[in-house]
Amino acid sequence: MRNIFCETMVKHSDDSNFIFLTGDLGYMALEPLQKAAGPRFINAGVSEQNMISVAAGLASQGLSPWAYSIAPFIYARPLEQVRNDVCIHDLPVKLVGNGGGYGYGVMGASHHAIDDYGILLTLLNMHVFVPAFRADVPPIVERLIKLEHPSYLRLGKDEQPKNFELPPYASWRHLLKGDGPTLLIVGPLAGEILNGFKELPPSDRPSVWVLTELPIVHHHLPAAFKADLERSNHLVVAEEHVAHGGVGEMLSRILLLAGEAPKKFSHYCAQGYVSGFYGSQNFHRKESNLTAETILKELKK
Amino acid sequence: MAFKETLLKSKKRLLQMHFESGVGHIGGNLSCLDILMVLHHQIMNQDDQFILSKGHSAGALYITLWSMNKLKDEDLKLFHKEPTKLSGHPAPKWREEIIFATGSLGHGFSLASGLALAKRFKNKPGRVFCLTSDGEWQEGSNWEALIFAHHQKLDSLTLIVDANGLQGFGSTKEVASMDSLTEKFKSFGIPVEEIDGHDLNAIEKALSQNTKGLRAIIAHTTKGKGVSFMENKMEWHYLPLKEPEYQLAIQELDKS
User: Fold this and answer.
1) A123 and A227 belong to one structural domain
2) pLDDT tens across B196-217, in order?
3) Which residue in the set A19, A45, A90 is minimally distant from B148, CB to CB?
4) How many domains does chain A have?
5) What is the distance in angstroms between the CA of the first residue and the CA of the last residue of chain B?
């Protein structure tokens, strides 16, 4: 998704308020933006804490700063700067983290972001965007530009199945009809799971939804999702994020408060490093049972 | 009223505010009040911006704003009370003079760098001043900011260090010595001027210089300046004033 992100940024870079800061990352990806934005593309160096506060300073003066890095370096390293300088002041700084979840695979745990949106959504005024497919990036960037609050864009890899037609972009989308449980997937993991489900007959598969914007607010739950949940009475949430602070926790709380909790709830989420070994993104997904095969097998029990 | 009289009145008002509120952080407020007063009364204009990185000196900033008729006595009565905007460290989104809420050390200089960069991009006039403490330079983020501000040639930015030599649990020399901060700044290629942070002429002269490029001013100050029993005493980082101490402090200031 990094390339489509860069292409989209280039289109917006002629806005005189546009400023792009990178923590010395983006080699072989962001050069077109560097060229297009000129002096408004700033390599802030390997100094994420400073970069976030500088972005806050810029935003306080009406500029529109984006701050980019590998995901954990944009939210975990400078967390206090995000909290105090950006979120407490409700400034429209746009944090961009590349490689959400286990995206950096065998690069190791330091480069993984399996606790990112949970941590960030504990902060005041924060909004999170987790594009699921390449095509989601441009409309999400449009929303980010208009948003007058802090935001975090979690970029992953595009896993849209071949010959699968996506519905137009929306924060909640019904991707696949099915007679089974109501399965809500967060972000790009949807592609991987769709791949395993799309050829199955509707009677043998869950009803698959994808969610790309957080936090979840009860009155924004689509009526069709609520109706689907009422039908299945079984909510399944799959996300490449740890349980704490994840969408499973968020959504179950909202449904419980509203008295709309389904009879059954299943949660598939990042389990950390189960075997203690490291591998590709898919290796870690498998260890966390975040595959279509495992989910299907378990749901059939 | 002559500036010196305004300054004396402000020091007394600072002590009154702390006494009435029963809260500490007086020592660090007295170490930087001369600098804040000269900066706001004699140097800054409407295009200039200020960041108080040592947010625990909020009291000195409130008093400075009071001395400029931007805060009233009724406001100061709410210092450390509730509900209040005059919290122990500056609150966000409240007054245009307080662009950022601070309190956790090591943020202000980066924020000020962002403001200076914004002036460049928006082609706006004015200078940006940032006051840090000396102990605060133990925060790694400040060094990130120093590298960035120098590399980006943030010409409008002036860094002021309130070097009172005392920090939270000891002297800066004992805790984690940075001697000499001047040499360290210079090694980054940044011009540094050392001044007596209580010499009003020296402060005014150092802050008036608006030469091209980032500048640092290390202001050697005394924690608790002007009140003999507070000067260079660790405890006055924290202690509130009792009635006899308050009366004695006022008498000393009157005699100064």
Assistant:
1) no
2) 999 999 999 999 988 788 999 9
3) A45
4) 2
5) 17
User: Which residue among B103, B107, B118 sits closest to A53, beta carbon to beta carbon?
Assistant: B107
CATH code of residue A232: 3.40.50.920
Tokens of A50: 């400073």
How many residue pairs bridge chain A and chain B with CB atoms within 8 Å of each other?
98
| Domain hosting residue B147, numbered range | 3-255
Q: Which two tokens stand for residue A269?
A: 């989420």
Contacts of A63 in chain B (CB under 8 A): 118, 121-122
- Which pLDDT tens digit goes with each residue over B115-135? 999 999 999 999 999 999 999
Give the tokens for residue B135.
């102990």
What is the radius of gyration, based on Cα positions, of chain B? 17
**What is the CATH classification number for the domain harbouring B192?**
3.40.50.970
Total domains in the fold of chain B: 1
Structure tokens at A5: 């992100």
* Residue A183 and residue A140 in one domain: no
Q: What is the mean pLDDT of each run of 10 residues along chain B (256 residues)?
A: 94 97 93 98 97 97 98 97 96 96 98 98 97 97 98 96 94 92 96 98 95 92 96 88 96 92
Nearest to A186 by CA among A232, A113, A134, A132: A132
* Minimum-distance CB partner of B101 among A47, A59, A88: A88
* Interface mutation target, options B141, B143, B151, B157, chain A, most CBs of A under 10 Å: B141
Helix (H, G, I), strand (E, B) or coil at A98: strand
DSSP string for A46-72: S-HHHHHHHHHHHHHTT-EEEEEEEHH
CATH code of residue A13: 3.40.50.970
Instruction: Tally Cβ neighbours within 10 Å of residue B248.
Output: 15
Cα separation, B103 vs A99, whole angstroms: 33
- DSSP secondary structure string for all residues of A164-223: -PPPPP-SEEEEE--SS-EEEEETTHHHHHHHHHTTS-GGGSPEEEEE-EES--GGGS-H
Q: Which residues of A touch B141 (CB under 8 A)?
A: 47, 49-50, 53, 81
Burial of B231 (0-12, 13-18, 19+ CB in 10 A): middle
- Looking at the fold, whether A127 and A190 belong to one and the same domain comes out as no
Residue A281: in which H helix or E strand, if any? helix A281-287
Residue for token pair 């109706």? A227
Residues 6 or more apart whose CB falls under 8 angstroms from that of A292 comprise A192, A193, A194, A195, A196, A197
* Contact between B177 and B11 (Cβ < 8 Å): no
Report helix, strand or coil for B179: coil
What does DSSP assign to residue B139? S
